[in-house]
Amino acid sequence: MSRPADHIDSVEPAAPDRPTVDGGPGAASVTRPKLGPLGWLRFAWRQLTSMRTALLLLLLLAIAAVPGSLVPQRSSDPNGVTQYFTDNPDLAPVLDRFQLFDVYTSAWFSAVYLLLFLSLIGCVIPRTKHHFEALRARPPWTPARLSRLAGYTERPLVSTDDLDTPSPAASATRSAGEAIDRAAAELKRAGYRVERYDVRGEPSVSAERGYLRETGNLVFHTALLGVLVAVGIGGGFGFSGQRVVVEGQSFVNTLAAYDSFNPGRFFDDTNLDPYRLTLEELDAVYETRNQQAIGQPIDFTARVSVQGQGGAPTDATVKVNEPLRVFGTDVYLLGNGYAPTITVRNPDGDVVFTDSVPFLPQDANLTSIGVVKVPDGLDEQLGMVGFFYPTQTTLGSGAYASSYPDLVYPVLTLNVYQGDLGIDEGTPTSVYTLDPTSMEQLTGGETGVDSIELMPGDTVELPNGLGSVTFEDVSPDAGSDAAADVYSQSVSRFASFDIHDDPSQGWVLAFAVLILAGLLVSLFVPRRRMWVKAARRPDGTVVLEYAGLARGEDPGLEEAVRAFADKHAGKAQDGSAD
Predict the structure, then answer these.
(1) How far, in Å, CA of 337 to CA of 477, rounded?
(2) For residue 346, what is the DSSP state?
(3) Which partner from 64, 281, 484, 521 sits 20 to 30 angstroms from 219, CA to CA?
């Protein structure tokens, strides 16, 4: 029994005051909840573990790695760092203060790395739990109105029994059930998870597939997390070392033999496997036919021999982007250049210094700078700053330069300094630099004395009767008439090797493959649901309704529903069985 209208009006409650933010007249004040320390921690954790934050951190990590490709890094190119300080004495200390020469071990890069690590963990674990729960859950109930869904279509159902039987309705019901059973079997064979429902006398089947898409997504993020872990562990137990080796010289894999060495935090030098690597020859090929690219490098090949402890030497090659795997380490060819062989004799003709000195290239034509230090054997210590030109030419200003990177007309010039080299106090100094503050310049510059100029095989007296200096010709047939004007092998070359050990390389490769596989699966496997229902019309006829639903973009959904409807409805009408 309904209440009278006047009664409803008489008991209508007064409208409560609505709180407003601006605190207008008559408005109730708003009391905002205050977040305590625990609340703020939860808020920060939710923000950190959101997918948006993870993507932002991944982008930030890529941006943070950019400076590592713009300036030389101590871990891979210590000589380049030294040269950068020489060329940019004002800028280099500023960059070093921000750890830009050690980007990948810097505090700010590590912070982004660790935040990304935590964010991925916070993203992956809850999503994995939710995914496993979804895999165990039943497909959802069939919607009451399939006509609202994508690809909706319907097909008539014809009973396979004689419709003149005493109970045609029972026959139609039986045929509808059989049709739904066949639909469930076909969808299951097509890779769908199916569930049979019967609501209000209308049988239906609910099917879904595409959970592999979310599985691929989780594999992608888990593998990305695995890469981060593997790189961190590999960096802790591995090492990276650099060594410059001149043709004919050898390098032994011991800690003292490296020019620079960067061990991981957990590295133990007793784990170094001793072996000898000898640089037999460095082959360089330059462009000679294309007039627009004369002198451009085409190929560098370091021909080496490797000998393990107690074993026989074996020949191998190292090329750019083709490292040599030997005794658990990877040997990379980083760079190369010339190493003029220089001999210094005292006034009595005794040799006080002889060595093949690596000169650092300064341009594409291998104009190079090197330093010679003679600490003993003369009355005073001697230092020389040399400039080497593989193919010497004279510029309009009168300065020398190299016009081609190969040995066509090699010239070596030396500026001589006499005094204290600054090495007697035990202070470490670079072999590629000379500090002239405690020395007297004898040639070149403002001395009024020309720099010493030599070609392979030449000997020139040093100023002030200090002795002589010889630019050795190291050609196999040096001194013969046949080699008088041939300089192609007159100067030794050097190769700069990076010896790298990373015990996690195999894991990184495996995770990288999983990343690619997970990404492909998550991009190309559609997540979709499909329903088939036998619906009874008011006139007593039964039709088969088909519809689908996609999660995300699925341009093939409607066509898939129609194709399945045509295939299934045909079998339902002719009563065929699989």
Answers:
(1) 22
(2) -
(3) 64
Q: Which two tokens stand for residue 362?
A: 């300064």
Give the 3-state secondary structure of residue 470: strand
CB 134 within 8 A of CB 122: no
CA distance linking residue 452 with residue 413, whole number of Å: 5
Q: Where are the alpha helices (DSSP H) in 98-201?
A: 107-136, 168-189
Burial 276-287 (b: 16+ CB within 10 A, else e): bbbbeebebeee
- CA-based nearest residue to 339, from 246, 477, 432: 246
Report the length, in residues, of the chain. 578
- Global confidence as pTM: 0.67
Task: Tell me the β-bridge partners of 289.
Answer: none
Give the C-alpha separation, 391 to 367, whole Å.
9
Of the listed ranges 27-41, 69-83, 250-264, 452-466, the least confidently predicted one is 27-41
Q: For residues 5 and 27, give the distance between their C-alpha atoms in angstroms, rounded to a whole number.
A: 31
DSSP string, 37-106: HHHHHHHHHHHHTSHHHHHHHHHHHHHHTTHHHHS--TTT-HHHHHHHHHH-TTHHHHHHHTTTTSGGGS
Whether residue 180 contacts residue 197, with contact meaning beta carbons closer than 8 Å, is answered with no
Q: How far is Cα 279 from Cα 265, in angstroms, rounded to an integer?
A: 31
Distance CA 104, CA 108 (A): 9
382-389 and 260-263 strand pairing: unpaired
Exposure string over 231-253, b if 16+ CB within 10 A, otherwise e: bbbbbebbbbbbbbbbbeeebbb
Contacts (Cβ under 8 Å, ≥6 apart) of 339: 246, 247, 356, 357, 358, 359, 491, 492, 493, 494
How far apart CA 123 and CA 176 sit, in angstroms, is: 45
Are 433 and 86 a contacting pair, CB within 8 Å? Answer: yes
Structure token digits, residue 491: 């100067």
- Alpha-carbon distance of 500 to 498, in angstroms, equals 6
The Cα–Cα gap between 514 and 519 comes to 8
Helix (H, G, I), strand (E, B) or coil at 461: strand
Run of H or E including 272: none
Question: Distance between CA 175 and CA 173 in Å, rounded?
Answer: 5
Give 545 or 21, the one with higher predicted confidence. Answer: 545
- Which pLDDT score, from 0 to 100, does residue 284 have? 92
pLDDT tens profile 302-320: 999 999 888 899 999 999 8
Residue 368 has pLDDT above 60, yes or no: yes
